């Protein structure tokens, strides 16, 4: 992979992690902590969700049930604001299924 593409991917990965954490913290620290612990059990951190959105989707479904819709909308909105023109389509498609 070309260095510029790798750097761009890493930036998006970190942005996704920060956006997820911020959205969860807005919901409440306990929600953030629950998701963080479940990600850790999978050997992941928030930024890994960019490459493993199916794991995040499963965790959000189990943790929030139907109320995850508001969280997913918040994350999607923030990503669209941040990532205009960047490759987050796959990530957003998975978490919004």
Protein architecture, described:
The chain has helices at 3-27, 29-41, 53-64, 68-82, 89-95. The longest helix has 25 residues, at 3-27. The model has no long low-confidence stretch (mean pLDDT 82). 74% of the residues lie in helices and 0% in strands. By secondary structure, the chain is an all-alpha fold.
Helix content: over 70%
What's the end-to-end separation, in Å? 29 Å
How many distinct beta strands? 0
| Helix/strand class | mainly alpha
State the shape: globular
Low-confidence parts lasting 5 or more residues at pLDDT below 50? Answer: none
* Count of helix runs: 5
Largest sheet: none
SSE topology string:
HHHHH
Strand content: under 5%
Average residue pLDDT: 82
Q: What is the gyration radius calculated from CA atoms? A: 13 Å
Write a short abstract of this structure.
Helix content is 74%, strand content 0%. The protein is built from 5 helices and no strands.
């Amino acid at each position: 992979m070309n260095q510029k593409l790798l750097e761009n991917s890493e930036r998006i990965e970190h942005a996704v992690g920060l956006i997820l954490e911020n959205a969860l913290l807005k919901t409440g620290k306990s929600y953030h902590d629950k998701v963080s612990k479940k990600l850790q059990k999978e050997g992941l951190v928030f930024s890994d969700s960019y490459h493993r959105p199916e794991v995040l989707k499963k965790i959000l479904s189990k943790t929030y049930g139907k109320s995850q819709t508001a969280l997913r909308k918040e994350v999607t909105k923030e990503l669209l604001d941040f990532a205009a023109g960047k490759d987050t389509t796959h990530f957003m498609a998975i978490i919004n299924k």
